[in-house]
Amino acid sequence: MNAKARKPTAGDFASDQEIRWCPGCGDFSILAQMKKVLPEIGVAPENLVFVSGIGCSSRFPYYLNTYGVHGIHGRAPAIATGLKTVRPDLQVWVVTGDGDALSIGGNHLMHAMRRNVDIKILLFNNRIYGLTKGQYSPTSLPGHVTRSTPYGSVDAPLHPLSIALGSEATFVARSVDTHTKHLGAVLRRAAAHRGAALVEIYQNCNVYNDGAFEYAKDVKLRSDTLVELEHGQPIVFGAKRDKGIRLNGLAPEVVPLGNGTDASDLLVHDETAAEPTLATVLARMRHPALPEAIGVLRAVERPTFDALVNEQVEAARAREGKGELADLLRAGDTWTVG
Amino acid sequence: MSDNALQAATKPIEELDSVVVRFAGDSGDGMQLAGTQLTNTSALAGNDVATFPDFPAEIRAPKGTLAGVSGFQVHFASRDIYTPGDLVDVLVAMNPAALSENLRFLQPHGTLIVDEDAFDARGLKLARVESNPLEDGSLDEYQVIRVPLTSLTREAVEGAGVGRKLATRCRNFFAMGLIYWLYGRDLEPTLRWVRHRFRDRPEVRDADVEALRTGWNFGETTEALARSYRVPPAALEPGEYRNITGNQALACGLIAAAELSGKQLFYGSYPITPASDILHELARHKRFGVRTFQAEDEIAAVTSAIGAAYGGAMAVTASSGPGIALKTEAMGLAVMFELPLLVLSVQRGGPSTGLPTKPEQSDLLQVMFGRSGEAPLPVLAASGPTDCFDVVLEAWRIATRLMTPVVVLSDAFVANGAEPWRLPDVAGLEPIEVSHPGASGGQPALPPSLPRASGGKAGGAASSAGTGFRPYARDEWLARPWALPGTPGLMHRIGSLEKQDGTGNVSYDPDNHEHMVKLRAQKVANAVNLIPDLEVTGPESGKLLVLSWGGTLGVCREAVERVRAAGGGAHGNGTGGAHGNGTGGAHGNGTGAVAHAHLRHLNPLPANTGAVLARYERVLVPELNLGQLALLLRARYLVDVVSLGKVRGRPFWVKDVTGVIEEMLA
Ligand SMILES: Cc1ncc(C[n+]2csc(CCOP(=O)(O)OP(=O)(O)O)c2C)c(N)n1
Ligand code: SF4
Ligand SMILES: [Mg+2]
User: Fold this and answer.
1) What residue owns the CA closest to ligand 2's atom 2?
2) Which CATH number is A83's domain given?
């Protein structure tokens, strides 16, 4: 890529690999948004690394002309942690699926977030195991009939964002594969965040779980089924923006605006709140009882793991001087023979 | 120093060429400390030393019980020694449980020092002994020195102002003082240690010092000990020495390898006995640029290391058998990625949680084959504490030269044991050359902690057009280029799916897969050209070859030398008594026919291994497992080696091996 001559474009970030997702898969639209966003975030392609686990979603790095690591099932956050620790100069993204991140890799996901490793984790949630041909996943809804649950799933599903908030992630957001403008904006915000960012992306698997997020994707429905969060603003939604979310005790409820109810009665979004309490309330609003929150639920600052590790090294060197190998070997009592 | 006056002995002195002492007590009695101090003091006195810390997995099992017994065996000598000794000359037993667990290690007529205060009804009951061994005649064959050790210690430290509980805990210093008197050891190194360790707790410091001196004085005055002994310095190679354990040497080796290759060291690990001390040691050395990462599990430990390797660091992960089991999938990933990575396996008794603190060599086949698919990687094994340093340097050389993960095996015996280490001349250590392909337009923008790319080795990697970098191009060793993220123009993707050779693109092509499987195997096999031939000591051919690997080196060498010495008429030495009537001069004929060789490289095996094995009528392979190396040798060379396997949670005794050698030569 010739960076000097012109600004990079989305096309510059396309690799020469043939894309092998099923036609119509939601992954395509996420990839397209990523390619569009990358030229805008001010990081040279050689300083970007995409790390993934295993799953349809985890093929993502092959299709971007950046550095990339397609790892093993569930381990991408750990691979990324090691990489970012020794190379804080790189911008590191993790691409993972609902099975990859929340089932086999749940442990690593949790610890990467609580350490606040400066990595941006994109969790493609299709509520199914795509690559292994359609078994239920940790986010599949109760009763879901899949090839491994012919009588319906009896598992209670996980809320990915509750896990993120419970694990002290400093950036937590949600978007939808085909809600392109919104997704692009969320990716840009994630790119700009310093610390562990978790973005849940509703992704349609049109082969094994088609329509799982139809309520959120359908342009006619989504103004009533989603609320787009805006920092500092009362939470308003609806095609005519005539509904809002109000807190009744600790429970959110929908209220129509007008007839004496106005924006001042509504919950005001604060993504910078020190405690993740409000974010948790918003994260757990579930269709069809409530509209689901998309956008940035939480964005707070906390020192990153990689920075702290490297600061300790620098501080030790400043205090004690750079280590000399001969001194290290000679540690403790020594004696001389001959 | 007034301590010198204290040390002027008045009783007769006898010279010995080697002594084995074992301290045994409760886990809370400070036996590991006593052993370590005696080891350091003896090393400083110029002796060769070898140690065997023998402790339980429980931190503090109920006081006074058999489960809580902790021991530390020290062998010091005025000559080169290779083992911590089989049976011991002196056993210090701090309570009845320690006595009943350890009496089997005391040689006939050996010296037994006991704390008689601990042999009360309560102590006997905790140890589940019916009658008091001090009274019932069962110890008659030993020289028993009864010391009211607890009461004397409490009295001695009264002035220091510590409470009764702390006073009792000084008993180990009393025992040390007594042993120091017995062998004329200098108190000063231990006094120095105490003063430093308890610089903020003067009352503890004073109590320990008093206990140590009182123990010494007890030796001087008690009528039970008629004489003391001296073990003169050994004729070690000239140089500067320190005492070092295997795990400490591994840590030093890792830091040295990182420096020699201009790399920052990343160490991903999850705590596990007996590997944790490597993590503890490395975590202290931040100023060497070491990044230690205590991961959430063993899988994260190894995969974070793989991420660090991709980023250009010297990446290392370590564990013991159960943790290595968790790492196996990721080790396969490292094979697929063809990235340099060190995996250290400090073996312990298995399977499963097994015997966490005890040595075994039963994970050889695990690291050889414990991965899915055809996934060979080089395997090296450390032969003793100081060898850990060298083996790590060699492993990192191989890993970077071939772009492959390498396994280094150690075990609980090698890891915790200590011996004098002649410090290497740092300036004389050979640099480890590592290069990274650079961009045509200049050097990659790397943080200052990473070396600049030299563009050297991957000459063929970048195509002439400047685009289409080939991450799986091959050099003369079949190694691929180690291209680092951050380098303009070399953006590439690596992945766990099969690679097309050259491009590194995903490929399911059958011809390519077969080619790649064979190529990765060939690459590892090529390491044979990086390792020396197998060397034999003793006859070049003949009746019997003893072949050792890993931590059994010392025992096998000692065993072969003893049998040879017996056959050649050069009879006996200090530890000769340790194996009782084992290797008497009975084998005048044929003992010259035993040779010894040691394998440091388990994969690939040295080029001449098959030829060496073929030169002997029989081959004996002693290992702390049920015949894992034997299995490999039989399969590879069709040689019917004789396997000597023991899994008793302790190293071989020399007599275990000499006994079999004698049978085979008879
Ligand atoms: C250790 C291991 N176990 C199981 C598999 C099989 N496997 C591959 S992908 C996958 C599930 C992927 O589901 P998800 O993470 O939701 O990704 P998606 O394909 O839906 O994008 C499984 C179970 C594997 N590759 N490795
Ligand atoms: S199986 Fe589903 S998730 Fe996977 S590529 Fe096809 S549509 Fe996409
Ligand atoms: Mg999925």
Assistant:
1) A205
2) 3.40.50.970
Q: Determine if ligand 1 sits within 6 Å of the CB of residue A109.
A: no
Where on the phi/psi map is residue B239: left (φ > 0), alpha (ψ -120 to 50), or beta?
left
Residue B328: closest CA among chain A residues belongs to which residue?
A72
Q: What is the pTM of this model?
A: 0.93
**In terms of CATH architecture, what is B242-428?**
3-Layer(aba) Sandwich (3.40)
Residues 3-62 of B with CB under 8 A from A: 40, 43-44, 46
Residue-wise pLDDT for B476-524, tens only, equals 999 999 999 999 999 999 999 999 999 999 999 999 999 999 999 999 9
Q: Which of A65, A75, A84 sits opposite B299 (nearest CB)?
A: A75
Q: Tell me the count of A-B CB pairs closer than 8 A.
A: 214
- Straight-line distance from the first to the last Cα atom of chain B, in angstroms, rounded to the nearest whole number: 58
Chain A CB within 8 Å of residue B492 CB: yes
Q: Do domains B242-428 and B536-665 have the same CATH topology?
A: yes
**pLDDT at residue B302, as a whole number:** 98
3-class secondary structure, A230: coil
Q: How confident is the model at residue B451 (pLDDT cuts 50, 70, 90)?
A: very low
Residue B472 CA to ligand 2 center (angstroms) comes to 29
Task: State the best of A79, A94, A336 to mutate against chain B, taking most chain B CBs within 10 Å.
Answer: A79
> Within a 10 A sphere around the Cβ of A322, how many other Cβ atoms?
10
Interchain contact, B312 vs A71, CB within 8 Å: no
- Is B536-665 in CATH node 3.40.50.920? yes
A99 found inside a domain: yes
Examine the pLDDT at B448 and tell me if it is beyond 60: no
Residue A111 domain-assigned (yes or no): yes
Q: Could you tell me if the CB of A138 is within 6 A of ligand 1?
A: no
**Is the shortest distance between the CB of A124 and ligand 1 below 6 Å?**
yes
Q: Does A5 touch chain B (CB under 8 A)?
A: no
Number of domains in chain A: 1
Q: Note the pLDDT tens digit of each residue in B83-115.
A: 999 999 999 999 999 999 999 999 999 999 999
pLDDT over 80 at A231, yes or no: yes
Distance (Å) of CA A43 to CA A1, A37, B310: 14, 11, 19
Q: What is the pLDDT of residues B23-39, one digit of tens each?
A: 999 999 999 999 999 99
Residue B333: helix, strand or coil by DSSP? helix
Chain B's closest residue to A49, CA to CA, is: B485
Q: Which residues line ligand 2 at a C-beta cut-off of 6 Å?
A: A 21-22, 25, 27, 56, 126, 130, 205-208
Nearest residue of chain B to residue A321 (CA atoms): B287
Task: Give the max Cα distance, chain B.
Answer: 91
The pLDDT value given to residue B440: 44
Q: Tell me which amino acid residue A113 is.
A: M
> Which residues contact residue B226 at a Cβ distance below 8 angstroms, ignoring those fewer than 6 apart?
B11, B12
Q: What is the DSSP letter of B236?
A: P
Residue A332: what pLDDT?
Answer: 82
Task: For ligand 1, pick from A132, A133, A201, A205 the residue to mutate: most ligand atoms within 8 Å of CB.
Answer: A132
Q: Closest by alpha carbon to B39, among B78, B14, B72, B79?
A: B72
Domain ranges of chain B: 5-230, 242-428, 461-529, 536-665
What ipTM was assigned to the predicted interfaces of this complex? 0.97
User: Is domain B5-230 given the CATH code 3.40.50.2020 in the classification?
Assistant: no
Domain that holds residue A200: 10-217+303-311
Inside any domain, residue A123: yes
Residue pair B427/B421 in contact (Cβ under 8 Å)? The answer is no
Does any domain span residue A289? no
